[in-house]
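Researcher: Let's do a round of design. I'm pasting the structure tokens now; please hold your answer until I've finished.
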């Protein structure tokens, strides 16, 4: 799955964002608040990754689907364009918390490829990608403070070696 473009509106910490991802095979996301990289809590790093998971699988770290909608707003929207198995794909997911309504549209080569319900469409997306939400979450980011135990020089050499390989640190 090669990510191309991500659009976010009123999802979690984001009001309005569009990110062109075509030039990135991997990325290190560093949050900065008030021009201070040491002050990154709440800058939206996890929300960014969460927006992709919610768009694709309809799942996130939020306890309820309405918690995905930015506080003080009614509707959130996330769309993701990507390439998979040589096919151009996009997924558009919305949540209207006032109406209690969620929608998802899944396109393959410009053709709508939905199931009969949101649940059916979610299953169709997972089947098409051959990756479920749990695999995504556990392979794209390390939760806060997990990286320290994973990459600890003295106690987890295997974890550190994996991290260096995944991030292609040997190139640098």
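Researcher: That's everything. Go ahead.
Model: Designed sequence:
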């Amino acid at each position: 799955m090669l990510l191309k473009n991500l659009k976010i509106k009123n999802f979690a910490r984001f009001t309005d964002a569009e990110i062109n991802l075509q030039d990135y095979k991997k990325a290190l996301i560093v949050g900065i608040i008030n021009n201070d990289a040491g002050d990154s809590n709440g800058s939206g790093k996890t929300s960014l990754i969460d927006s992709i998971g919610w768009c694709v699988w309809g799942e996130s770290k939020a306890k309820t689907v309405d918690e995905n909608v930015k506080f003080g707003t009614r509707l959130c929207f996330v769309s993701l364009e990507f390439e998979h198995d040589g096919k151009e794909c996009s997924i558009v997911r919305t949540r209207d918390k006032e109406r209690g309504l969620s929608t998802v549209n899944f396109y393959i080569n410009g053709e709508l490829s939905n199931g009969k319900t949101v649940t059916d469409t979610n299953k169709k997306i997972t089947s098409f990608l051959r990756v479920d939400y749990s695999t995504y979450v556990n392979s794209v980011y390390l939760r806060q403070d997990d990286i320290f135990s994973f990459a600890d020089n003295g106690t987890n050499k295997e974890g550190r070696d994996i991290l260096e390989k995944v991030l292609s640190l040997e190139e640098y």
